[in-house]
Amino acid sequence: xxxxxxxxxxxxxxxxxxxxxxxxxxxxxxxxxxxxxxxxxxxxxxxxxxxxxxxxxxxxxxxxxxxxxxxxxxxxxxxxxxxxxxxxxxxxxxxxxxxxxxxxxxxxxxxxxxxxxxxxxxxxxxxxxxxxxxxxxxxxxxxxxxxxxxxxxxxxxxxxxxxxxxxxxxxxxxxxxxxxxxxxxxxxxxxxxxxxxxxxxxxxxxxxxxxxxxxxxxxxxxxxxxxxxxxxxxxxxxxxxxxxxxxxxxxxxxxxxxxxxxxxxxxxxxxxxxxxxxxxxxxxxxxxxxxxxxxxxxxxxxxxxxxxxxxxxxxxxxxxxxxxxxxxxxxxxxxxxxxxxxxxxxxxxxxxxxxxxxxxxxxxxxxxxxxxxxxxxxxxxxxxxxxxxxxxxxxxxxxxxxxxxxxxxxxxxxxxxxxxxxxxxxxxxxxxxxxxxxxxxxxxxxxxxxxxxxxxxxxxxxxxxxxxxxxxxx
Length: 474
Known about the structure:
By secondary structure, the chain is an alpha/beta fold. It is 31% helix and 26% strand. The protein has 3 domains: 2-154 and 281-352, 3-Layer(bba) Sandwich (FAD/NAD(P)-binding domain), CATH 3.50.50; 168-278, FAD/NAD(P)-binding domain; 363-467, Enolase-like, domain 1, CATH 3.30.390.30. The protein contains 13 helices and 21 strands. A 5-stranded mixed β-barrel has the order 1-2-3-4-5. The longest helix is centred in the N-terminal third of the chain and has 25 residues, at 80-104. The model has no long low-confidence stretch (mean pLDDT 96).
């Protein structure tokens, strides 16, 4: 049987379901096709479950330091079964919430795998969605005026180090561990790798990070990257940069052993588990792109214009499947723009320079805008300033005074080019910098905004005053 819709969203992750809600608000008859659970990677295999585990690791670490706060406790222990149960309960509560939003918006859900058909008896143009239903029933045919592809991504495999779920893991496997390993090697020192390294180290796992580049977090400002490496090494994490992992040397027997080329020599590493964390790749296989005129990049991502239209103007694509920043909040905003464009609402385009990016390690890292090197490469005459959290009273009260806030400004116009943070709760603090960027606030305006004392947010006013030559503390 065939059903007609104004919009069919293929993929019910964060970007997909947010777009569907906005479409419903605009009066579009909308359906979502999802082969797994609503909420996608972010809710079930990424953002939420990993941050739940990070929080448990943080509490465990803080409890071990309770004596420093005058609180005397016996030695804490980890019940990892309870840690996982708490994580699963959080995910399930949010999953129920998303399902409730779908009912509220009168959005139809088809639980199955959707494929785009070419021109057929259902439509003279490509875009009809054939849904292979999970329950084994006959395929449903959905005939939409518009299609939104939001199929997301999956962990990228390293040839020769394909995950087996036992010795070699990807991030999906790691989230489902039933017990903590005593040791682990993490291949990849990007955002996901560093979050896992920090978390597992706080859980007392012996962690080694092997990074191919000359520094971890290579996309961060260089000073942030160096400070992160210093603080992670301080907590006992072994970090080896300029390390080319040699998959052919992998041995699995009561754990794993692998070699990496480092400084023209091969060095051997041993651990119970190995986690491959080298990025993600788009889910574009078998979704019917070959039945359309949609183009893909050399890396396999779907090409779109600034409103997320593909070469087939009635078919849009957003989120990880188009590459870019591959962040849940970015996918959501892309989805809003796409839906408003198809509904002739003249949406404001996403300015990717105004997107905050966070690393939820311990210490936390957050940034928005250009790094110092990027600003110089783009020809800006810049000035920079930093404020240490050691000068912020609330950070000392928290017992977390490592780290700093760095601001980068155009020396000619006083435009805010970038803000970079490492330290306590900076993934929350970055929102002020995000608002400042959106409103085109100058450091002077930020400095003149009165910040309450004592708070961690004073670090932002302090760095703004510093860039104006008016630094008070530190």
